Amino acid sequence: MANHFPLVTSFLLVFCLSSTALAAPSYLKVGFYQKTCPSAETIVRNAVKNALAADSGIPAALIRLHFHDCFVRGCDGSVLLDSTPNNVAEKDSSSNLGIGGFDVIDAAKAKIEAQCPGVVSCADIVAFAARDGVQTAGGKYYSVPAGRRDGRVSLAADAANNLPGSFFNVVQLKENFARKGLSLEEMVTLSGAHSIGDSHCSAFKKRLYTFSSANPQDPSLNSTYANFLKTQCPASDSTNPIVSLDPVTPTALDNTYYKNLKVGKGLLASDQVLWTTPATRSMAKNNLNHPSDWAQKFAAAMVRMGSVEVLTGKQGEIRKNCRIMN
Ligand SMILES: *[C@@H]1O[C@H](CO)[C@@H](O)[C@H](O)[C@H]1NC(C)=O
Questions:
Q1: Annotated binding residue 249
Q2: Which of 4, 68, 200, 290 is catalytic?
Q3: Residue 224 CB–ligand 1 contact under 6 Å
Q4: Across all residues in the chain, what is the average pLDDT?
Q5: How many CB atoms lie within 10 A of CB 270?
Q6: Could you tell me the distance, in angstroms and rounded to a whole number, from the CA of residue 221 to the centre of ligand 1?
Q7: Alpha carbon distances (Å) from 254 to 170, 246, 258, 281, 294
Q8: 90 labelled as ligand-binding?
Q9: 5 to each of 11, 12, 18, 19, 326, how far by Cα in Å?
Q10: Candidates 217, 218, 221, 224: which one to mutate for ligand 1, based on the most atoms within 8 Å of Cβ?
Q11: Arithmetic mean of pLDDT, 127-149
Q12: Is 264's C-beta closer than 6 angstroms to any atom of ligand 1?
């Protein structure tokens, strides 16, 4: 068998070279619009700041928008497309309940189109806006490689099939992220985004009242926290209100999320499992103990997530209006 080794090596070398050349990030470039639309990133940043003044939930909405864009047909702005009489779009899937931030993207796009028509993709605007959301919520600034093109397909069923569920266990979360080329550690790191934003009661209510026949209340849920959640989400209430994902620092993008997990205050089952599962608990502990390392890893993981299955070059289009195909 030993004589197969050189063959294997050269095969691997060829494979590695070609896979590097094909990897999406090499097509995306920091400063992509420097010559063609130099104000693009500033316009987006100002749109985010303006929206933030009226709504502290904007950073969480924009980060989620980018995530939900990237996990469904890649970061191609497909989440922005409106439904038509013939098609239910991603944004109207029940998996996208409460999704927002569209007005910020529209405001930025309108200003950008006025300056440099037909140049800046909606998918890139989402990526820039998510970065600005991270920074304005207290996270680390990072440069966003750009050059994404906008997709022409948006199907509600794709959202349901690709977005992680709020009752996923670690095996399911790992598999869900692996399908997008993201590691278990990146999954744990990105879950820290749940240190801001909120969730509808419907995403976790089962944990309070109907968890299992033996335990109507999820035993991994802190009982003090559970009592509070029951006041927010009464069993008989059908209005489906929202609750902060991080009960301690709900608008600061920080590692309090991991501190909460330690004391049973992960809101979603898919949050708390990161602590109750040994394979991810060590990672969550690291993020708890080393906040600046986590912030750095979070920024890096956002860039990686932002390169998932992107359209580049002549693929797709540059939409004129982010809600409608050209
Ligand atoms: C539950 O939360 C309370 C504070 O709200 C804390 O004092 C307690 O230690 C937590 N319980 C567990 C098991 O971590």
A1: yes
A2: 68
A3: yes
A4: 93
A5: 23
A6: 10
A7: 22, 10, 9, 18, 9
A8: yes
A9: 10, 10, 20, 21, 52
A10: 224
A11: 98
A12: yes
Dist CA 302 CA 227 (whole Å): 34
Contact 222 CB / ligand 1 (< 6 Å): yes
User: 77 with 121: CB under 8 angstroms?
Assistant: yes
Residue 192, both tokens: 């820290």
Closest residue by Cα to residue 190 from 72, 58, 297, 59:
297
- Mean pLDDT across the stretch 279-299? 98
Tell me which residue has its CA closest to atom 1 in ligand 1. Answer: 222
Q: Name the pTM for this structure.
A: 0.92
Domains and CATH numbers, the chain: 191-297 (1.10.420.10)
290 is catalytic: no
* pLDDT at residue 183, as a whole number: 98
Does the pLDDT value for residue 43 go beyond 60? yes
At residue 27, the pLDDT reads 87
Residue 89 tokens, joined: 């779009």
Mean pLDDT of 300-316: 97
Q: For residue 69, is pLDDT > 80? A: yes
